Amino acid sequence: MEGMRRKERYDRMVAYFEEAMPVAETELHYGNAFELLVAVILSAQCTDKRVNMVTPRLFEDYPTAEAMALAEPEVIYEYVKSVSYPNNKSKHLVNMARMLLRDFQGEVPSKLEQLIKLPGVGRKTANVMQSVVWGKAAMAVDTHVFRVSHRIGLVPKTCTTPLAVERELVKHLPETVIPRAHHWLILHGRYVCTARNPKCGECGLAEFCQECGRKGK
Questions:
Q1: Taking the model in full, what pTM does it have?
Q2: Which residues are catalytically annotated?
Q3: Which of 6, 53, 62, 118 is 20 to 30 A off residue 107, Cα-Cα?
Q4: Which one-letter DSSP state was computed for residue 23?
Q5: Cα distance between residue 143 and residue 71, in whole Å
Q6: Phi/psi of residue 16, each to 5°?
Q7: What percentage of the chain's residues is helix, strand, coil (to nearest 5)?
């Protein structure tokens, strides 16, 4: 369906997920904004499953920014050493907690410009926090969202950066569904529209997917 207008593709995608996945949430386990922030920092280039294996003990011993700020990176490293880039992430977590205490009274800020000042927090992580914790119309673009958006035909080939994809998605999606749409695309990319050998035969979007149309599937 190369000739399908982009608006129609968005409309059909939203309609499909509203029916197939009305509840779409992060697969990271957390109990509050601080725990989610820690989990998202740890999840960079790492699976949620692995992060969920290490956070229970970490959260038990360091449940607050105050507690984690008193730790040294070498100590936090022992808790997170099985995730990717544990040296950097343990430093990020301690310094992030210390900045929360110093600049934000120990509370996780809700504004993008404040979040991205925190060590280990980029635009993607900040958008995850905004959408999941505060329900804001923020679209975090990870590798799954980037890949699926291009394959389906939600964004043009000229969108070659995560920021370009984010802006295109936010421009075309209804504001009320953006927080869920982030998870729709992530979960679809994680389990159906995988990087290698996508399960086109099981995909509810195949009928109007741009990539499937090119392949004649």
A1: 0.90
A2: 124, 142
A3: 53
A4: S
A5: 32
A6: -65, -50
A7: 65, 0, 35
